[in-house]
Amino acid sequence: MHHDIMNCNNNRGLTPLARKNYNEDFYVRLRLGTEGSHKPFPDGDFTVIFTSTGGGRYTCGRENGALTNCKVNPDGTATCFIQGGNLEVGTLKAEVRIMQDDPNFPSGKRRDVLFPDGVIELVTGASSFDDVQMEVAMNYAIVSAYELAVKKGYQGTQEEFYATFSELTKTMNATKETAKGLQTKLEEVNREWQELNTSITDKLSTIKDGKSAYELAKEHGYIGTTEEWLASLKGVKGDTGWLSLVNHGTADTTFALTPNAMHVWGEVAQLTLTLGAPMPNVVNEYAFEFQSPATPTNLSLPATLKWYNNYTPTIRAGKRYQASIVNNVIIMGEVE
Fold first, then answer.
1. Are 293 and 318 in contact (CB under 8 A)?
2. Distance CA 45, CA 42 (A)
3. Domain boundary assignment for the chain
4. For 62-119, what is each residue's pLDDT tens digit?
5. In CATH, what number does 242-336 get?
6. Contacts for 191-195 with beta carbons within 8 Å, 24 or more apart?
């Protein structure tokens, strides 16, 4: 049996290794080698592309574990089966593409492209050899990321090495998804605040100077003075209807809010609030305000409260916050 050995990574050497009749079936055995030693074909995908200068193209290889027009031999070589009649008379060259695991690339794979030196001459006459096997040696370094790491001093197993990259990839993907979710939520909140601001602005723009409520009341028959009119607006107990202002300073950090009053705190590290007894037969509003110090305030509220639009604001250091609670629904915003 005759074997011809080819050097690797270019196919500029034009001395034919063999002559084959272009209609004849034959096979080519590929052997990978580097630094004087042979390397088996990797377990992943590979493609061998044969082209003739006279025309035609023929491929063999492995894709997703399935072999086409070839086999991988026990000694680590690969044999490609060339079916006659697919390539025209001319010089036959080969190109080998090998996919290897490499976490440095987005797909986790790296493509190596190799060009054997030797060529085969496709002729119309008889083939030069009786045997149908021709060895093609390829002197090319097939070195995985793990092998490179070992050369640099890594002592773990191959499984441990690639598992490290796998966990890092999972962590990075999870972080990206979390950031994406937060960005989406922020955009949603900004959009809702913008819609609310636009709504308020539109409604305010429709308000024009006109007659006072007292003047309208007189037109409808009221005959009292302005002072009497204002007094008539008070409740049955003489309440004006305005929210009363209660300043707590930095005290009363555990407190039951009274309805229809604005409770104001200065800088407080902790603020624990509950809702006091509501007034009967009226809409009760619980309002409060506080200043967050250098370390954000730890705010504790009743678990039964429902946040408006399910948005719970994050309390930040050095900011003032104001909140309003009506019908067990709370809305709170950063005011400065």
1. yes
2. 8
3. 16-143, 146-195, 242-336
4. 999 899 999 999 988 888 999 999 999 998 888 888 887 777 888 888 888 887 767 7
5. 2.60.120
6. 192/309, 192/311
Measured CA to CA, the distance from residue 77 to residue 60 in angstroms comes to 14
The secondary element (H helix, E strand) that includes residue 291 is strand 285-291
16-143 CATH choice from 2.30.30, 2.60.40, 3.40.390, 3.40.50: 2.60.40
- pLDDT tens-digit readout, 283-333: 889 999 999 999 999 999 999 999 988 888 999 999 999 999 999 999 998
pTM of the prediction? 0.40
Tokens read off for 192: 């809702």
Order across the sheet with 261-267: list the strands: 244-249, 261-267, 285-291, 320-326, 329-334, 306-307
For residue 261, which phi and psi values (nearest 5 degrees)? -150, 145
CA 127, distance to chain mean position in Å, is: 58
